[in-house]
Design brief:
Elements (H helix, E strand, L loop, with lengths): L8 H20 L5 E5 L6 E4 L4 E4 L3 E5 L6 H20 L3 E2 H8 L14 H15 L8 E2 L5 E3 L2 E5 L2 E4 L8 E2 L8 E5 L3 E5 L2 H9 L2 H4 L2 E5 L6 H14 L3 E4 L4 H12 L8 H4 L5 E2 L4 H6 L7 E2 L2 H11 L2 H4 L2 H13 L1 E2 L12 H13 L5
Parallel strand pairs: 5-6, 12-13, 12-14, 14-15
Antiparallel strand pairs: 1-4, 2-3, 7-10, 7-13, 8-9, 8-11, 16-17
Length: about 375
C-alpha cells in the first residue's frame, strides 16, 4: 500500500477518481461492476509481532452492483466516495452525521432508501478507508471533538497560531482531524494521556504540565482517532515518550491496549493510529498496596470479569509475562480502584507524589 499519511489533496482526490474510473471501465466492458475490499472480520485480523500492532490480513472479497445482497452496500460506498471527492476538492470538512443526511435518499425507481441508519454510513466510510488506504480524516469526514490538551507547545492549525499553555482551565479542544497541525515550538520531555477529563482538570489546575515539563492529554474513556493520531505524531515527529494513565481496572487496560496495539475494529488504520511504543503508567495492583488504597476497592461486576477473561486471551498480552502477572493479580483481587481515590490523600497527590514517583522509578508496564 502507498504511504498516504501526508498525501496532498490532489493525490487523495485522484485515488477516488481512479476508483470511479475503475467502475466505469467495468460497465463499458459489460461486466458486473464490483469493488474489491479486505474482509473486515475477526478471521482476517491478526497481531503482528514484528510491528507490535493489530493488522488486517490479506483476505479480500468482491462486492457486486448486480447482486441483491450487495447492491445497497455498493451504492453506499460509492456515494461516500462521491461526497468525499466534493469535500476534498472544496477543502471543506463535514461530520459523520452530516454524511448520513447527505446520503439519505431513495434509490430512483424503487421505494428503497440508500441508508436507513447512521451505522450504515459509518460502515460505508470504513469500507472506503480500506479500499483507498485513506483515513476518514483524509477523506474530510470528522467526528465530534472529544479531548483536551495543555503544555508548553505552540502549533499552527489551518492558519491560526495556538499556544497550548495559554488556553485557560479548559485547555485546547482537540479536533477530530489532527493530521494538518504543524508543531512550531515544543518544550516537553514526554506526554501523559489519561482516560478521564476530571483527572486532566486536576492536573491542569495543578499545572502538572509545567512542573513535570510534559504535555497532558485527555478524552473521556476510549481515545478518539484524532487523539491517537496526535499521540503518534508527538512520538514520531517530536520524539516524546507517551505514557497512558488510567484507573486500576480492566477497562483502563483495554484503553491502553487500543492506543498501543490498535483495535480490532480499526485494524485497517493501525499504522496511522497505533503506538507500540506507548507505556502504561496507570494504577497497578501493586500500587493499590503501596499507596494504601484497599479501602477504596470497588468490586468487579460480571461485565468486568468477562472483559478481563477476554483480554487475558489477547495474543499481545499472552506473550507478556509482565502483563499476564498483572492480570492474574487483578483477577485474584476481583476489584478495581479509580485514580480519583488519590484525592483522599490530598487534591494534588497525583501531581506532587504519584506521577513524580512513577517517572523517577520508571515504574511502567510495557
Amino acid at each position: 500500500m502507498a504511504d498516504t499519511t501526508n498525501m496532498n489533496r490532489k493525490k487523495r482526490a485522484e485515488i477516488l477518481v481512479n476508483m470511479g474510473n475503475g467502475i466505469y471501465k467495468q460497465i463499458e466492458k459489460g461486466e458486473n461492476p464490483s469493488l474489491t475490499l479486505p474482509v473486515r472480520g475477526l478471521s482476517n485480523v491478526k497481531y503482528s509481532k514484528e510491528s507490535g500492532m493489530i493488522t488486517m490480513g490479506s483476505n479480500t472479497a468482491n462486492r457486486y452492483f448486480l447482486n441483491v445482497g450487495h447492491v445497497r452496500k455498493f451504492i453506499q460506498t460509492v456515494s461516500v466516495a462521491s461526497i468525499s471527492k466534493t469535500l476534498i476538492d472544496s477543502d471543506k470538512h463535514t461530520s459523520l452525521r452530516d454524511v448520513f443526511y447527505q446520503m439519505r435518499r431513495t434509490i430512483p425507481g424503487t421505494n428503497i432508501d440508500v441508508v436507513d441508519e447512521q451505522t450504515e454510513t459509518d460502515k460505508a466510510i470504513e469500507d472506503l478507508e480500506v479500499i483507498t488506504d485513506l483515513t476518514r480524516e483524509q477523506l474530510h469526514i470528522t467526528a465530534n471533538q472529544a479531548g483536551q490538551v495543555a503544555g508548553e507547545v505552540t502549533i499552527e492549525d489551518r492558519g491560526d497560531t495556538i499556544d497550548w499553555s495559554k488556553m485557560g482551565s479548559g485547555g485546547w479542544a482537540i479536533p477530530s482531524t489532527t493530521e494538518d497541525i504543524e508543531f512550531k515550538k515544543v518544550n516537553a520531555k514526554f506526554v501523559i494521556y489519561m482516560e478521564k477529563q476530571a483527572i486532566w482538570q486536576r492536573l491542569n489546575e495543578d499545572k502538572a504540565w509545567k512542573k513535570l515539563n510534559c504535555i497532558i492529554i485527555a478524552s473521556q474513556g476510549q481515545a478518539t482517532r484524532g487523539i491517537r493520531r496526535l499521540l503518534q505524531r508527538l512520538y514520531h515527529e517530536q520524539h516524546l515518550p507517551v505514557y497512558v494513565l488510567t484507573d486500576g481496572d480492566i477497562w483502563g487496560v483495554y484503553i491502553y491496549s487500543a492506543i498501543k496495539f490498535g483495535s480490532i475494529a480499526l485494524a485497517h488504520v493501525s499504522e496511522k493510529l497505533a503506538l507500540p511504543e506507548a507505556k502504561f503508567m496507570g494504577l497497578t495492583m501493586d500500587d493499590i498496596e503501596k499507596y494504601g488504597l484497599k479501602r477504596h476497592l470497588i468490586k468487579f461486576k460480571d461485565v468486568d470479569i468477562a472483559r478481563l477473561k477476554q483480554i487475558k486471551n489477547y495474543e499481545w498480552f499472552k506473550n507478556s509475562k509482565q502483563w499476564m502477572a498483572e492480570l492474574e493479580k487483578m483477577e485474584k483481587l476481583g476489584a478495581k480502584v479509580e485514580l480519583n481515590a488519590f484525592t483522599a490523600k490530598g487534591l494534588s497527590f497525583l501531581t506532587e507524589h504519584y506521577l513524580p514517583e512513577k517517572l523517577k522509578e520508571k515504574n511502567f508496564l510495557d
